[in-house]
């Protein structure tokens, strides 16, 4: 029998009792993945389209419209609410500019535009910490829904009314905080075992084979999800560049609002039926049942075309073989079904249902609860490991500060000093996601080759290499801009013959993107691997906090671009990134050694714990045998 799913909040947490879901007809893509992966990937494509559409023009819009200075008797229609206050908070006076040169005025505007970009992108990385925290008290689905609505309203306000610019950015940042962490969490939940209620709490399937299969498919699913992010980021700057040239900057924010409408349509249409905990497990069960039906049909067809004498001779053997196959498949299906049943309704053997197992589970739950209640205990027990994580996170702040110049100072640099040949400035931002899609399989294959030849660097060294690659990209750009003039200039002030060939921008993104692939995904993997299991979520939040500080620092560094010579600016950014890489390389041995020592101590502790549990189990077994023997003597 089929039942309609429960409400969305219950879907997200998993069915509390055994339920049967109608599994949609599978396509070639969904043979190994639940259809919910397509739903969340489609949602993410449109959300990233919305974000990168506004990011591509943000610093240009701020420079040309938002922070256009006005004199004391200026026109009020040029005034944007909170613009001059924001500038004043950062030490820039936009009101009294009549007594300074045009170049100095442009330098002020460029500086405050860079600070705005850094502040906005920094809070985009900070709010997911709050959104993930609130989801624990409400639900992930609810936070995603709120995030979609807030991002739509924020972009719509900016596109419809220029004076609502700062209010709109705040709404978008808050909406991103509700959406970003929880959509990834819901994707992860689809590749987890279903949970059920029992007297002993929530219980899940303990089959190692199923767990390995789910983890393998989960890794593949996040790879597909990561590609979806970059598909949205690839097309967004192209659309933004076209709209900005034809209809003005505000049309880009309206396009971003339309993108959030499509994201909401995809999510709200499919999430209730397709996105739920254990969706991948249902695919595995359905696949095995289909395989069993095909095997049974094949056996029946074979038996029908054999003659009677062969049937009599093979009756015993065929029946035994068929019975074995059915038994194996039935056991597989029963394993899956038992994962959905309350413990007291399933066969106790399927759950390893001895009293010792229950005691062991209860001890583990109590130990986990105590660790959650005492973070200080976790910190004290893992000082070396957490120190290593802290060093990595602090050093990567410099990487993010250098990397985010691609959307900040580099946008102004391209607009003023690069021969674009009719290509909109914002469209150059699509080079980075395109390079990610092109380079990811190449770098993965290269790592695989290094692994096969025992030359693959560890995670810390990969991050050091990535920082150095980003530094090299900035040094190449500095070398190319040696003869470019100093200061903030208008696009028309520089003759076409003196502008930089756009080949150098493509080369910059090629090398910088390779560095990003060595740092961003590898760094997050390092954090989840090295962090103590009690605080993995907290450690991931700290990783994004390092991006928050890096983005804010990127705004402060970018504000120096307008008053510096391009060669000096890009050289300084390159030196910063290379310095981070060198620092990671020098600290690598100590970091690896600290993690190795913690792993050895943890393994020793676990081995002692397993030994004590085996001894306790042996004592319990002896006591049970003695009680059984006493009962037999009494009966006699």
Largest sheet: 2 strands, antiparallel
Give the N-terminus to C-terminus distance in angstroms: 51 Å
Structural class: mainly alpha
Strands across the major sheet, in which order?
Answer: 1-2
Shape: globular
Question: Could you state the order of secondary-structure elements as H and E?
Answer: HHHHHHEEHHHHHHHHEHHEHHH
Brief write-up:
By secondary structure, this protein is an all-alpha fold. The chain contains 19 helices and 4 strands.
Tell me what you see in this structure.
This protein has 636 residues and is mainly alpha-helical. It has helices at residues 8-13, 36-66, 83-89, 102-135, 140-160, 165-189, 208-247, 250-274, 279-304, 308-338, 355-373, 375-381, 383-403, 409-417, 431-452, 459-480, 503-530, 536-558, 566-635; strands at residues 196-198, 201-203, 418-419, 500-501. The strands form two sheets. Strands 1-2 form a two-stranded antiparallel sheet. The longest helix has 70 residues, at 566-635. The protein is globular, with a radius of gyration of 30 Å. The model is unreliable at 1-24, 26-30, 195-207, 307-361 and 632-636 (pLDDT under 50).
How would you summarize the topology of this molecule?
Layout: H1 8-13, H2 36-66, H3 83-89, H4 102-135, H5 140-160, H6 165-189, E1 196-198, E2 201-203, H7 208-247, H8 250-274, H9 279-304, H10 308-338, H11 355-373, H12 375-381, H13 383-403, H14 409-417, E3 418-419, H15 431-452, H16 459-480, E4 500-501, H17 503-530, H18 536-558, H19 566-635
Parallel strand pairs: 3-4
Antiparallel strand pairs: 1-2
């Amino acid at each position: 029998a089929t039942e309609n799913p429960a409400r969305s909040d219950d879907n997200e947490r998993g069915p509390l009792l055994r339920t049967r879901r109608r599994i949609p007809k599978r396509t070639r893509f969904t043979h190994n993945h639940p259809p919910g992966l397509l739903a969340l990937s489609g949602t993410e494509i449109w959300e990233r389209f919305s974000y990168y559409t506004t990011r591509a023009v943000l610093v240009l819009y701020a420079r040309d419209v938002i922070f256009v200075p006005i004199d004391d008797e200026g026109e009020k229609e040029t005034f944007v609410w909170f613009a001059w206050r924001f500038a004043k908070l950062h030490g820039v006076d936009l009101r009294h500019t009549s007594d300074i040169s045009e170049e100095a005025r442009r330098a002020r505007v460029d500086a405050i535009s860079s600070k705005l970009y850094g502040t906005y992108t920094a809070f985009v990385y900070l709010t997911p910490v709050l959104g993930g925290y609130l989801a624990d008290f409400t639900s992930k689905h609810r936070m995603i829904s709120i995030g979609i609505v807030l991002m739509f309203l924020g972009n719509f306000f900016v596109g419809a009314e220029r004076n609502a610019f700062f209010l709109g950015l705040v709404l978008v940042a808050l909406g991103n905080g509700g959406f970003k962490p929880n959509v990834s969490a819901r994707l992860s939940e689809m590749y987890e075992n279903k949970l059920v209620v029992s007297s002993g709490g929530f219980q899940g399937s303990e089959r190692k084979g199923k767990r390995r299969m789910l983890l393998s498919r989960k890794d593949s699913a996040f790879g597909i999800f990561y590609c979806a992010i970059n598909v949205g980021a690839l097309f967004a700057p192209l659309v933004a560049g076209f709209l900005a040239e034809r209809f003005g900057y505000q049309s880009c924010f309206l396009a971003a609002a339309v993108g959030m409408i499509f994201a909401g349509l995809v999510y709200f249409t499919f999430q209730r039926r397709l996105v739920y905990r254990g969706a991948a497990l249902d695919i595995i069960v359905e696949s095995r049942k289909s395989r069993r039906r095909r095997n049974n049909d094949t056996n029946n067809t074979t038996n029908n075309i054999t003659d009677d004498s062969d049937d009599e001779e093979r009756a015993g053997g065929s029946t035994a073989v068929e019975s074995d196959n059915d038994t194996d498949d039935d056991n597989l299906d029963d394993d899956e079904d038992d994962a959905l049943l309350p413990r007291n309704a399933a066969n106790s053997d399927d759950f390893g249902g001895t009293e010792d197992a229950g005691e062991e589970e209860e001890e583990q739950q109590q130990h986990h609860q105590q660790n959650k209640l005492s973070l200080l205990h976790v910190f004290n027990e893992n000082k070396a490991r957490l120190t290593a994580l802290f060093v990595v996170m602090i050093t990567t702040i410099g990487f993010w500060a250098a990397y985010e110049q691609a959307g900040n100072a580099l946008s102004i640099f391209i607009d003023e000093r690069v021969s674009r040949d009719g290509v909109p400035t914002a469209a150059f931002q699509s080079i980075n996601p395109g390079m990610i899609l092109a380079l990811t399989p190449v770098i993965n294959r290269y790592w695989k080759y290094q692994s096969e030849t025992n030359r693959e660097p560890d995670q810390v060294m990969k991050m050091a290499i990535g920082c150095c690659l980003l530094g090299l990209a900035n040094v190449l750009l500095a070398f190319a801009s040696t003869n470019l003039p100093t200061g903030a200039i208008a696009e028309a002030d520089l003759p076409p013959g003196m502008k930089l060939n756009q080949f150098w921008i493509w080369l910059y993104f090629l090398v910088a993107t390779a560095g990003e692939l060595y740092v961003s995904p590898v760094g997050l993997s390092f954090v989840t691997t090295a962090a103590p299991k009690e605080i993995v979520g907290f450690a991931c939040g700290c990783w994004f906090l390092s991006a928050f500080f890096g983005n804010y620092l990127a705004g402060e560094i970018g504000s120096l671009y307008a008053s510096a010579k391009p060669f000096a600016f890009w050289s300084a950014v390159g030196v910063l990134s290379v310095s981070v890489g060198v620092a990671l390389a020098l600290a690598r041995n100590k970091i690896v050694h600290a993690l190795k020592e913690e792993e050895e101590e943890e393994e020793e502790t676990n081995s002692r714990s397993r030994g004590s549990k085996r001894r306790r189990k042996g004592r319990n077994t002896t006591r049970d045998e003695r009680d059984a023997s006493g009962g037999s003597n009494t009966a006699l």
